[in-house]
Amino acid sequence: MNHMADDIHLSKSYASRIFQQETGSSITDYVTAQRLKRVYFLLETTTLSIEEVGRRAGFPNGSYLIQLFRKSAGTTPLQYRQHFERSGRH
What's the rounded Cα separation, in Å, for the pair 25 and 53? Predict the structure, then answer.
């Protein structure tokens, strides 16, 4: 965020406020949502381990990924993948 604010010559707090006004979400929430979209995609299209899926999506550790994923999907990443595979949508 600091680099982005510097690049557009705005303070971090002002850039965050503008982002919130324009998108309706904080930069942190937006980045987390984009990372979770990547997780869903990787779970549906690869056989990577959950830990590797998390790393590739930018999550610092597997437990944090599982916590956020459960909050988003209502299930764990592994359960989501298993359900996706059983449903034949791949």
Answer: 25
Q: Which domains does the chain have, with CATH numbers?
A: 28-86 (1.10.10.60)
Q: What is the tens place of the pLDDT at every residue in 10-42?
A: 788 888 898 899 999 998 999 999 999 999 999
Neighbours of 53 (CB within 10 A): 24
Kindly calculate the radius of gyration of the chain based on its CA atoms and give it in whole angstroms. 16
Cα 55 to Cα 50: distance, rounded to the nearest angstrom: 9
Distances (CA, A) of 88 to 2, 42, 73, 75: 44, 16, 19, 18
The owner of tokens 């779970």 is 43
50-77 tens-digit pLDDT = 999 999 999 999 899 999 999 999 999 9
Rounded CA gap, 11 and 34, in Å? 24
